[in-house]
Specification:
With 407 residues, the chain is an alpha/beta fold. It has 14 helices and 15 strands. It binds iron/sulfur cluster (SF4).
């Protein structure tokens, strides 16, 4: 027997939490039991003889595993089985520009005034046409637009790619789903009219109540954007589009989100069914408050939303989840034709996986679904702590919230 490579041990001061990310099993053990585990876990047979009940639990929880078990393969198998439902989908994310009309303090993108060249645009179309060919085996195209602010490029690049994708999907009898990650400021009637045939889904971010949000997301002329974005969200759901409102919080800004609730109360039940909220911690949050306290505060805030009849997508889960970037059939094309897997890192050459070439070919295409799996599963139970650690090293500082805002 051997120790699992997916074990995590958290010292919470009074006792220890033993967690296995592969089995998703956790146990709280006393300091005394932890010392026994620490002194004997490298020799499980010794542990078995001295503490048989404890040993049986560790085996059952996957904390100690048989010598011949290949845990990395087991994690990959689990990961693949969770992705079966999407196996026939090709997920293409397009960054038509990295430019943005906001300048959030935590943004990791350089927001240069970038646009897609005609050549890259036509290569994106060729890529779509190639992947939707019958012999490729996909029956669904998931087309996401990211950035920068993708709606800045709506009337040319986005529209052209959308119209082309629809033509191809109609011709080949494939499903087409359209998603936008946007700050929502430009989502006006004109754009929603054009998007009518696609019934897109949106992820739109709010950074707090009106005051806090406006201190983060302002126009170039320093005007607040909250009320227009909230109105645009309501307009989108009234037209049948799903909207997930991503609530980007820091420990300091979290209490202010309670005011957001009243801005979405009294929706019709049809509109309410299309709206959900998801709290996400800004990873540069410098607060040194213990992660468990932050989590508790988030759960309390989530309950306020639930009590008001709003839908919450839970902020965290310790279960093994398959990230879109870990799916082999998911790629991101940047405005300059560079190919990426993950949209949560900056789009630099060193993070790039290759280049989009003619006919939808991708050069240096070394993407493998297994590339990050071991790291992912080992880290996932530590995400919050890891982010806190990162933020303490990060030089970007959250601006002060100087006063309460009453809507
Ligand atoms: S809206 Fe999004 S892309 Fe624009 S500055 Fe803020 S985080 Fe960056």
């Amino acid at each position: 027997m051997k120790e699992s490579i997916y074990n995590h041990i958290i010292d919470n001061g009074e006792n220890f939490i033993l967690y296995n990310a592969l089995s998703d099993e956790a146990a709280v053990i006393t300091k005394e039991l932890y010392n026994i585990y620490e002194s004997r876990h490298r020799n499980p047979d010794d542990l078995k003889t001295a503490y048989p009940d404890f040993y049986d639990y560790l085996v059952k929880a996957g904390i100690i595993v048989a010598e011949d078990i290949d845990e990395i393969n087991e994690a990959l198998r689990l990961n693949d089985s969770k992705g079966l439902a999407q196996k026939k989908a090709f997920h293409l994310t397009v960054n038509p520009t990295l430019k943005c009309n906001m300048n959030c303090w935590y943004c990791y993108e350089d927001k240069r005034p970038t646009r897609m060249s005609e050549e890259t645009l036509s290569r994106v179309c060729e890529l779509i046409e190639d992947r939707m060919r019958p012999d490729k085996g996909f029956d669904w195209l998931i087309l996401s637009f990211f950035g920068g602010e993708p709606l800045l490029a709506f009337h040319k690049e986005v529209k052209m790619i959308l119209e082309f994708a629809k033509r191809i999907c109609d011709r080949e009898k494939k499903h087409l789903s359209v998603l936008f990650t946007t700050n929502g400021f430009l989502l006006d009637d004109g754009i929603l009219d054009s998007l009518g045939p696609y019934l897109p889904k949106f992820q739109i971010t709010l950074d707090g109540n009106e005051y806090v949000h406006n201190s983060v997301k302002r126009t170039k002329g320093h005007l607040g954007t909250y009320s227009r974005i909230v109105a645009n969200i309501k307009n989108a759901i009234s037209r049948g589009c799903y909207v997930t409102v991503r609530l980007n919080y820091t420990y300091k800004s979290l209490p202010y989100f309670v005011d957001v609730i009243s801005d979405f109360e009294n929706l019709s039940s049809a509109d309410n069914a299309l709206l959900s909220f998801n709290f996400q911690r800004i990873w540069q949050d410098c607060s040194d408050v213990p992660a468990c306290e932050v989590t508790e505060a988030v759960h309390k805030m989530e309950h306020h939303f639930l009590d008001a009849g709003l839908t919450i997508i839970p902020s965290s889960s310790n279960s093994l989840q398959k990230c879109y970037a870990d799916c082999e059939d998911s790629i991101t094309i940047n405005f300059d034709g560079r190919v990426f897997k993950c949209t949560a890192r900056d789009f630099t050459e060193s993070n790039s996986e290759g280049m989009l070439e003619e006919k939808g070919n991708i050069s240096n295409h070394v993407i493998s679904a297994s590339k990050g799996i071991r790291k992912m599963t080992r880290q996932m139970s530590f995400i919050t702590g890891f982010m806190t650690l990162l933020s303490s090293r990060n030089r970007i500082k959250e601006p002060e919230i100087t006063r309460m805002w009453n809507c």
